[in-house]
């Protein structure tokens, strides 16, 4: 990997006495789907939040396409081609689906200090937004208020919003969270299509999905990456088996 | 869906037409008092509309909006006292100083959220209040009498009641039109998106604070205009205009009429000020009646009067 799209070096983030991210180093190559797995509380979301800039790390560095973005604010990282979906659905609930996506397209179409023209009548933005909605299968729900969409549809909308920013790197924080079996299957199918177009970092609990999708997997336990490799290697790794897969059963059974 | 003749639109249309035709009624009936009252109402409707832009659409609960009424008013008053009577100087100064104050206050306050934002905007308005009280050259606590209204040459005579009323109404309708354009523009969608979910807006690439700040400045400037009108209307400006209860009045008008609706603040200002006028004639303790009334609206009429009318017309 001569030129990884994303490189994380010795990232550290503490919350009081807890080290949520403990010297994490990670490389994601262009075009790969890199899954991050680990039991609840392993620090996966904390890591994602530092990658997107919602949280600042206490030490270490993050490079996107060779550029140091460790201290770059969240909104500017988006302009650099980083998009995320949230573990807990985070959309604009009092806007309709199309507006949510159109705003994402608008964010990447110059500044928005335009006070006069009706933004909802700008055909360029609307077309981009509608295309992204159709991409995730929500074309028919364009004019539905987000708060009226089902949970599964909201997860898909999260994806459409991220896609509308035409990202280089898509950070997906548990896109399958709370989805039923059929909805999950649809999401896996969708991700399988998307991975051909964009580099993806996927945090997910659904092991079937992860092993079906990932090119490489990193395993996090207590804020550390204990193993990183192809799915087959991870399956064979003794550390992972002991520290994670065994524990994971306990975790998923009561969750 | 749009352009429907429902109850809400009918009421709004009636109110707008009524305001437009009011001088006709007063000249026929000779009821000068109504014109005086409604001139005041129209000015406060403009101030409330500007507050609604940040509070209703932008989710910024400013508790210091009356400060701009005072700054706009004092710009007119001080310039008049110094012998500069031209409205072409007074009004731009009023707008610019309001904008500048909003820029400074906004830049500091918008780092905070929620209750802290409310408290800091309040603190800045009180600061403006005490500064005005200390201006002994310009009347201090007692306020400043404006002996001559802003002079716009032969263009318009502000001392003529009807002309002045129509100037105020023109400013109100123009202000509402401006807000309508802004709310539906790219900028307006961003500001409303930030009200809805700031983290999401940041994640898709919008720098929150600078959009909020620009919105805050626009609202302050618009309220400064209302301040310049108010000073001309009363021929007087005093620190009391900036007192925190005045900011509270503006908030009540917005909430009463309907936060985040285009015409809510107009309806709110009319209902609030008319009620105040008539209840205070009935009893000195009019606030005792007004209070529970407000409580009822807030508890049962979410979305204010305009919101209730909207629901009523849907079913």
CATH topology of chain B: ABC transporter involved in vitamin B12 uptake, BtuC
Name the CATH homologous superfamily of the largest domain in chain A: P-loop containing nucleotide triphosphate hydrolases
Helix content of chain B: over 70%
Average per-residue pLDDT of chain A, rounded, comes to 90
How many beta strands in the DSSP annotation of chain A? 10
Tell me the distance between the termini of chain A: 37 Å
| CATH-level-2 architecture of chain B | Orthogonal Bundle
Shape of chain B: globular
Q: Poorly predicted ranges of chain A (pLDDT <50, ≥5 residues)?
A: 249-255
Largest sheet of chain B: 2 strands, antiparallel
Mean of the pLDDT scores of chain B? 93
Q: Portion of residues in helices of chain A? A: 25-40%
Low-confidence segments of chain B, given as residue ranges, are: none
Task: Please report which band the strand proportion of chain B falls in: under 5%, 5-15%, 15-25%, 25-35%, 35-45% or over 45%.
Answer: under 5%
* Pair with the biggest interface: A-B, 37 and 25 residues
Radius of gyration of chain B: 19 Å
Strand order of the largest sheet of chain B: 1-2
Q: Separation of termini of chain B?
A: 14 Å
- Whole-number tally of structural domains of chain B: 1
Shape of chain A: globular
Task: Give a written overview of the molecule.
- The complex is a heterodimer of chains A (255) and B (315).
- Chain A is an alpha/beta fold and 255 residues long.
- Chain A has two domains: 1-81 and 167-255, 3-Layer(aba) Sandwich (Rossmann fold), CATH 3.40.50.300; 95-166, no CATH class.
- In chain A, 38% of the residues lie in helices and 24% in strands.
- Chain A is built from nine helices and ten strands.
- Chain A has helices at 44-52, 74-79, 97-107, 123-135, 151-164, 181-194, 207-213, 231-236, 238-254, and strands at 6-15, 18-28, 33-37, 59-64, 67-68, 82-85, 169-173, 199-203, 216-221, 224-229.
- In chain A, strand 9 and strand 10 form a beta hairpin.
- In chain A, helix 4 (123-135) crosses helix 5.
- Chain A is globular.
- The N and C termini of chain A lie far apart (37 Å).
- Residues 249-255 of chain A have low confidence and may be disordered.
- Chain B has 315 residues and is mostly helical.
- Chain B has one domain (7-314): ABC transporter involved in vitamin B12 uptake, BtuC (Orthogonal Bundle), CATH 1.10.3470.
- Helices cover 74% and strands 1% of the residues of chain B.
- Chain B has helices at residues 7-29, 32-57, 66-81, 87-109, 114-133, 161-184, 186-196, 198-203, 208-234, 244-257, 264-282, 287-300, 304-314; strands at residues 144-145, 236-237.
- In chain B, strands 1-2 form a two-stranded antiparallel ribbon.
- The radius of gyration of chain B is 19 Å and the shape is globular.
- The mean pLDDT of chain B is 93.
- The interface between A and B is medium-sized, with 37 and 25 residues.
């Amino acid at each position: 990997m001569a030129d990884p799209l994303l490189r994380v070096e010795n990232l550290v983030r503490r919350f009081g006495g807890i080290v949520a991210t403990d010297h994490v180093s990670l490389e994601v190559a262009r075009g790969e789907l890199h899954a991050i797995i680990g039991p609840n509380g392993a620090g996966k979301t904390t890591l994602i939040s530092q990658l997107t800039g919602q949280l600042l790390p206490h030490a270490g560095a993050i490079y996107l396409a060779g550029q140091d973005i460790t201290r770059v604010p969240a909104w500017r990282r988006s302009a650099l081609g980083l998009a995320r979906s949230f573990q807990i659905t985070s959309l604009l609930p009092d806007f309709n689906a199309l507006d949510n996506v159109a705003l994402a397209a608008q964010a990447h179409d110059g500044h928005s200090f335009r006070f006069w023209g009706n933004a909802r009548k700008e055909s360029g933005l609307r077309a981009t937004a509608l295309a992204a909605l159709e991409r995730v299968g929500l074309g028919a729900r364009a004019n539905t208020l987000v708060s009226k969409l089902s949970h599964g549809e909201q997860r898909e909308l999260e994806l459409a919003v991220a896609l509308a920013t035409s990202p280089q790197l898509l950070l997906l924080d548990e896109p399958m969270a709370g989805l039923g079996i059929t909805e999950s299957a649809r999401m896996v199918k969708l991700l399988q299509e998307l991975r051909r177009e964009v580099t993806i970092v996927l945090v997910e609990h659904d092991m079937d999905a992860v092993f079906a999708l990932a090119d490489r997997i990193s395993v996090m336990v207590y804020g550390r990456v204990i193993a990183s490799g192809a799915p087959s290697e991870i399956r064979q790794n003794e550390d992972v088996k002991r520290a994670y897969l065994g524990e994971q059963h306990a975790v998923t059974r009561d969750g | 869906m749009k352009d429907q003749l429902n109850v809400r639109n009918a009421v709004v249309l009636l109110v707008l037409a009524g305001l437009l035709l009011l001088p006709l009624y007063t000249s026929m009936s000779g009821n000068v008092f109504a014109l005086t009252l409604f001139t005041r109402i129209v000015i406060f409707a403009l101030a409330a509309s500007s507050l609604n832009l940040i509070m209703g659409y932008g989710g910024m609960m400013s508790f210091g909006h009356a400060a701009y009424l005072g700054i706009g008013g004092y710009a007119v008053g001080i310039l008049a006292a110094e012998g500069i009577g031209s409205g072409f100087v007074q009004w731009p100064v009023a707008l610019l100083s309001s904008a500048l104050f909003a820029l400074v206050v906004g830049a500091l306050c918008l780092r905070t959220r929620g209750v802290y934002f409310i408290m800091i905007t309040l603190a800045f308005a009180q600061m403006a209040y005490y500064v005005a009280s200390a201006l002994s050259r310009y009347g201090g606590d007692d306020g400043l009498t404006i002996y001559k209204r802003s002079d716009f040459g032969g263009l318009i005579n502000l001392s003529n009641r009807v002309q002045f009323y129509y100037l105020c109404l023109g400013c109100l309708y123009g202000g509402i039109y401006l807000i309508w354009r802004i709310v539906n523009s790219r900028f307006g969608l961003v500001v409303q998106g930030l009200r809805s979910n700031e983290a999401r807006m940041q994640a898709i690439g919008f720098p929150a604070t600078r959009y909020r700040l620009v919105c805050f400045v626009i609202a302050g400037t618009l309220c400064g205009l209302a301040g310049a009108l108010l000073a001309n209307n009363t021929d007087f400006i005093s620190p009391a205009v900036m007192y925190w209860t005045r900011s509270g009045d503006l908030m009540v008008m917005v909430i009463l009429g309907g936060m985040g609706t285009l015409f809510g603040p107009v309806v709110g200002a009319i209902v609030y000020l008319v009620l105040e006028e008539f209840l205070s004639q009935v009893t000195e303790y009019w606030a005792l009646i007004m209070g529970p009334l407000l409580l009822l609206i807030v508890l049962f009429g979410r979305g204010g009067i305009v919101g209730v009318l909207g629901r009523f017309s849907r079913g």
